[in-house]
Amino acid sequence: MKPQDLISGKSSLWIFGYGSLVWKPDFKYKRSQVGFIKGYKRRFWHGDNFHRGSDELPGRVVTLIEDDDASTWGVAFEVSGSQVEESLRYLNVRETVRGGYVTKTVDFFPDGEGGSPVPALVYIATSDNALYLGPASPEEIGAQIAVCRGKTGHNLEYLLRLAEFMRSSCPDVEDHHLFSIEAVALNVVSYLMAAQ
């Protein structure tokens, strides 16, 4: 389903971010809210040969994997009026330019509001994407992230910013996958610096 099909006739839209969007949305929005979606887990299973890696050394960024027992915390952005079309046009380039992404509508549960969930649009990299790397151990993922960089910067920065978001905005949530990879990557970087 195309994003445009999801918003026909709507004057506003929520967009859920679970990776770099949580700290760098780069589109105008009316308001943002920390919260979570159910039925998905965040995993560093997607490759990036542009922003956080190269063709020779692809970095790793997050995507969502379906899991009935899981939930993923992030930020939803409400866009309205002309922001709807502008944000979708921007995200279609940022998120789907390399293909292998799908858009879905999910229920977003705002943190601390105790109200009803709101429908939100989310972009998910699938295994059909040529850059999809799939599962690996925290040691393998962390070591890969520690040494990769792309046009936007170091892959490690992406990892650390995501971990910082979780600690500051969702302090009671334990994201074992994220934090175990962070620990490995930091150990690798410390080892490499000591070896110089």
From TrEMBL:
UniProt-listed InterPro entries: ChaC (IPR006840), GGCT-like (IPR013024), GGCT-like_sf (IPR036568)
Entry keyword set: Apoptosis, Cytoplasm, Golgi apparatus, Lyase, Neurogenesis, Notch signaling pathway, Unfolded protein response
Top-level EC class as recorded in UniProt: lyase
UniProt keyword annotation of Cytoplasm present: yes
GO function terms (MF aspect): gamma-glutamylcyclotransferase activity; glutathione specific gamma-glutamylcyclotransferase activity
EC number per UniProt: 4.3.2.7
CC per GO annotation: cytosol; Golgi apparatus
Gene Ontology annotations of biological process type: apoptotic process; glutathione catabolic process; nervous system development; Notch signaling pathway; response to unfolded protein
Compartments reported by the entry: Cytoplasm, Cytosol; Golgi apparatus, trans-Golgi network
Highest taxon of the lineage: Eukaryota
Reactions it catalyzes: glutathione = L-cysteinylglycine + 5-oxo-L-proline
UniProt record similarity statement: Belongs to the gamma-glutamylcyclotransferase family. ChaC subfamily.
Biological function: Catalyzes the cleavage of glutathione into 5-oxo-L-proline and a Cys-Gly dipeptide. Acts specifically on glutathione, but not on other gamma-glutamyl peptides. Glutathione depletion is an important factor for apoptosis initiation and execution. Acts as a pro-apoptotic component of the unfolded protein response pathway by mediating the pro-apoptotic effects of the ATF4-ATF3-DDIT3/CHOP cascade.
Protein name stated in the entry: Gamma-glutamylcyclotransferase
The organism of origin for this protein: Austrofundulus limnaeus (Annual killifish)
The encoding gene: chac1
